[in-house]
Design brief:
Number of strands: 0
Structural class: mainly alpha
Shape: elongated
Length: 88
């Protein structure tokens, strides 16, 4: 179970850091206002559009990846063990 925790933590840390970098580039209006959560630029170019898409994808990858390794994988393993005990 420790390796699943490490995998989830690695995904959360790496994707979260990349999300913070992209959010700092594209959605920080000023340092006095809400950082990382300002609205995105109204007319982004091609690279800014790719960066904004990647920012959203990394956010959801961080959340769903960590939940997968911390919740789903252990539940599946417990269900397999219970099924094996029940069938034998």
């Amino acid at each position: 179970m420790a390796d699943e925790f490490a995998k989830g933590l690695g995904i959360l840390t790496t994707a979260g850091l990349a999300w913070m970098v992209l959010a700092g580039w594209y959605t920080t209006a000023s340092f006095a206002e809400g950082q990382l959560l300002a609205p995105p630029p109204s007319d982004p170019g091609v690279y800014a559009s790719i960066g904004l898409f990647l920012k959203d994808a990394l956010f959801w990858f961080a959340v769903l990846g960590a939940l997968t390794f911390w919740v789903v994988v252990p539940l599946v393993e417990q269900a397999r063990e219970a099924w094996a005990e029940r069938s034998s």
